[in-house]
Amino acid sequence: MSEIPLSHILFVSTALFFIGMYGMFTRRNMITMLMSIELMLNSVNINFIAFNKYLFPGNLDGLFFTIFIITIAAAEAAVAIAIIINLYRNHKSIDVEEADALKH
Q1: Which of 37, 45, 47, 100 has the fewest C-beta atoms under 10 angstroms from its C-beta?
Q2: Could you tell me the residue range of the domain that residue 97 belongs to?
C-alpha cells in the first residue's frame, strides 16, 4: 500500500481552508458562516495530523493539538448556535446585515 504524498494532503487542506474563507466572506447567513469557520478549523487539523505523520512520526504533538482544537470547536459551535437561536427568537432573522442594522 503506497502512502499519499504530503503535498497532496496539503493541497486538500489548503482547498478546504479557502472554501471556508470564501464561505465566510460571501455568505450572510450566520449558520453558513459558522460552518465555514468549522471548515477552516478542520483544514488546520488536517495540517497538524499530516505534519505530525510525515515530519515527526514518533511524536504525538500534532494529535494533541488536533484534539484540543476539536474540543474548542465543539464548545465554540455550541455557544454560537445558542446565540443564533436567541437572535432568531428576538428578531426572526439570522442575516448578519439585519442584525447589524438592528444594533443602531
Answers
A1: 100
A2: 6-103
